[in-house]
Write a structure and sequence with these properties.
The protein is an alpha+beta fold. It contains eleven helices and ten strands. The longest helix has 24 residues.
Length: 333
């Protein structure tokens, strides 16, 4: 007991993150890119903590989700000279080590060790590293978005006692994790490729996938896929998931999602904008270089073949009638 309490007073575990590439200058880098790397790294570590501790501590003595995540919070404590290298400290760990362990430190260690295993290219979804599940993998995958912003490499380094862990997130690692996520190897799953558009975050996370042959597919996503969704919006992607019967339009509960193209054509300025954020129509028109439609045939060619426009129109008219009736009833009261 005394030894455990003594360990709880040890200095917090540090994580060093250094970035290099043509856009990185001496001690300088884009604030938005730095925030993306730090935020997604912390999210991945917190997700790992939930995998390691969330399911095991279901009794009254266990930790709740927010309590687990607070031990994985990263605090920026330094910016080292000579390079774009940030120094982070983990939040203080639980005082009752004998019961809860070093939640943040173990999760950070699992993060680094898991990334090292992924970089080998020899693992599959069936034998993921300790602390990793499909949600963690997709969050780690989403970190790679910044590699298209003039950053070639992200180095993670940590030292805890006599043990040192170091791993690099470069284009080779990005390829390894995308290969992993694009072949989930789970029986019964269907795969689709296409351009992901029309994301909706109001009634759960869903989007419409437009396939090259003209077909469409409704994709229902999980909350742990939120990080990669912001990077996948308006990209060509590959999804794998469980097909849901009973819908006129193909509907899939998505298990894995991978981005196939590197850049968003004509809308590079929109990178980093959350898909659930409202954007003025004028800004969308300008960013997407939209021009007026010259004839009706051009418009109808864009309408999905399996969608009946009259169904959509009837829905709008029905919704308007319901709203008008509700307003009348409210006024009568």
């Amino acid at each position: 007991m005394g030894d455990q309490n003594a360990k709880s007073n040890d200095p917090p575990m540090k994580l060093y993150i250094s970035m290099s590439g043509p856009k990185i200058e001496d001690k300088r880098m884009s604030v938005s890119d730095f925030i993306e790397i730090a935020r997604k790294t912390q999210t991945a570590i917190q997700q790992i903590a939930q995998v390691l501790y969330g399911k095991k501590k279901s009794s009254a003595k266990g930790r709740k989700k927010k309590e687990i995540e607070q031990y994985c919070e990263l605090f920026l404590v330094g910016w080292e000279k000579g390079s774009a290298k940030a120094v982070f400290e983990l939040a203080p760990q639980p005082s009752q080590m004998e019961m809860f362990g070093r939640i943040g430190e173990e999760s950070l260690t699992s993060f680094l060790e898991g990334m090292e295993k992924i970089s080998s290219g020899k693992i599959t979804i069936k034998d993921l590293p300790d602390g990793f599940d499909i949600g963690v993998v997709q969050t780690v995958q989403s970190i790679g978005v910044v590699l298209g912003h003039g950053i070639d490499r992200i180095n993670y380094y940590s030292k805890n006692g006599g043990k040192t862990a170091k791993v690099s997130y470069d284009h080779k690692f990005k390829e390894s994790i995308e290969n992993l996520i694009s072949r989930p190897e789970i029986p019964g799953l269907v795969t689709r490729t296409g351009r992901l558009e029309v994301l909706n975050g109001h009634n759960g996370l869903s989007g419409r996938l437009y396939e090259p042959g003209g077909g469409t597919c409704i994709c229902n996503f999980r909350k742990d896929q939120l990080e990669i969704l912001s990077a996948a919006w308006l990209h060509n992607v590959k999804i794998a998931g469980q097909a849901i019967e009973g819908f006129t339009t193909c509907t899939i509960e998505v298990v894995s999602l991978s981005v196939l193209d590197e850049e968003i054509a004509d809308i590079e300025d929109m990178q980093g904008i959350p898909f659930w954020k409202s954007i003025p129509t004028e800004d969308l028109i300008e960013s997407q270089n939209v021009s007026p439609i010259a004839n009706l045939e051009e418009l109808t060619s864009l309408w999905p073949a399996d969608d009946d426009p009259m169904v959509f129109l009837n829905y709008i008219l029905s919704d308007r009638r319901k709203r008008a009736k509700a307003e009348l009833n409210l006024g009568a009261e």
